Amino acid sequence: MMIAVIAKLNVAEGKEAEFETAMLNLAAQVRANEPGNQLYTLCKDAGGNYLMLELYDTEEDVEAHGETEHLKASGASFRGLMAGAPDIQRLEVIG
């Protein structure tokens, strides 16, 4: 069963450009190194709020994503860029 993840990201004011660069670098690594990931894309709404849209083939692929070296290493890139913890939703894909 496919799993969708929507992460609402709380970016610190004035850090948007740095955040976008760091997130786009991470997204490129996810796409290149995680065959079970079908979508990993950064979006921004009209109010300037950031969302990460993710799609995985299985729950195991979601779990594997959390254990990847590139995700763990990216933590340092986001230090000082976030205004709070992300709000993460996991959804079962129906169709």
Structural summary, described in words:
The chain has 95 residues and is α+β, with helices and mostly antiparallel strands. The protein has a single domain (3-92), classed as Alpha-Beta Plaits (2-Layer Sandwich), CATH 3.30.70.100. 38% of the residues lie in helices and 29% in strands. It contains 3 helices and 4 strands, in the order E-H-E-E-H-H-E. It has helices spanning 16-33, 59-66, 69-78, and strands at residues 3-9, 37-44, 50-56, 87-92. It has a 4-stranded antiparallel beta sheet with strand order 2-3-1-4, with helices on one face. A hairpin with a 5-residue loop joins strand 2 (37-44) and strand 3 (50-56). Helix 1 (16-33) runs antiparallel to helix 3 (69-78). The longest helix has 18 residues, at 16-33. The model has no long low-confidence stretch (mean pLDDT 97).
Task: Tell me the layout of helices and strands.
Layout lengths: L2 E7 L6 H18 L3 E8 L5 E7 L2 H8 L2 H10 L8 E6 L3
Antiparallel strand pairs: 1-3, 1-4, 2-3
Helix pairs in contact: 1-3
Percent strand equals 25-35%
CATH class: Alpha Beta
Question: Roughly what percent helix?
Answer: 25-40%
Any low-confidence stretches, pLDDT <50, length ≥5? none
CATH topology annotation: Alpha-Beta Plaits
Radius of gyration: 13 Å
Strand order of the largest sheet: 2-3-1-4
- In total, how many domains does the architecture comprise? 1
Q: Please give the alpha-carbon distance between the first and last residues.
A: 10 Å
Q: In DSSP terms, counting alpha (H) and pi (I) runs of 4 or more, how many helices?
A: 3
Give the strand tally: 4
Order of helices and strands: EHEEHHE
Mean pLDDT: 97
**Biggest beta-sheet profile:** 4 strands, antiparallel
The CATH architecture name reads: 2-Layer Sandwich
Structural class category: alpha+beta
Principal-axis shape:
globular
